[in-house]
Structures are given as structure tokens and as C-alpha cells.
Specification:
The chain is an alpha+beta fold. It has four helices and five strands, in the order H-E-H-H-E-E-H-E-E. Residues 1-66 form the HTH HARE-type domain.
């Protein structure tokens, strides 16, 4: 099992966002791997790059699938003359 799959399984079984340190500890325990700084750092990097995970702020991570699905693109920023990125989030205009 890949380390990110173990982290995914931990979050899935927990059913709610977790502190990243607890998540790393649990995932590495599931893999039977001793926690070393290098291994934990690698797993943290892999979680950052894996689209299944979502940073929730304050060192907390959850699963992207827990977010409600949007019913369509948000047109309100276009109405205000703003710009959106590919996820439909507003981007600030640079006046400078």
C-alpha cells in the first residue's frame, strides 16, 4: 500500500478532518513504518500533491470528496467584473 493510500484510509475511517501530525502518525503506523523526519516530510509532500486531499487550514487536512459538489459555475464574480480561476474562485485583479 502506498503511503498516501494509507493516509486516505485513515481520513476515510476517521470521517472528519485531522491534524496533519496525527494523520501522518496514523498512516505510518498502518504501514508499519517508524516515523522519521524524512519519511514524514515525504508523506506530507505527497499528500499536498494528491488531489484526493484538501487543506482545511490550521494544519488540518480532510478529503476533497467531503466538500459538497457545486451545481455549476459561479457567475456572480463575472457580474462584478472579476476574474475566476479554473475552480470558479475569484482572483484578485492587480491594479499595479
Amino acid at each position: 500500500m502506498r503511503a498516501t493510500d494509507a493516509a486516505y484510509a485513515v481520513l476515510k475511517s476517521q470521517g472528519q478532518p485531522m491534524d496533519v501530525q496525527d494523520l501522518l502518525d496514523e498512516a505510518l503506523t498502518q504501514l508499519g513504518v517508524d516515523r522519521e523526519a524524512r519519511i514524514a516530510a515525504r508523506l506530507y509532500t505527497d499528500i499536498n500533491l494528491d488531489s484526493r486531499f484538501q487543506y482545511r487550514g490550521g494544519s488540518t487536512w480532510g478529503l476533497k470528496e467531503w466538500q459538497p459538489k457545486s451545481s455549476g459555475r459561479n457567475t456572480s464574480s463575472r457580474d462584478r467584473g472579476g476574474y475566476e480561476d479554473d475552480d470558479g474562485e475569484d482572483l484578485e485583479e492587480d491594479d499595479g
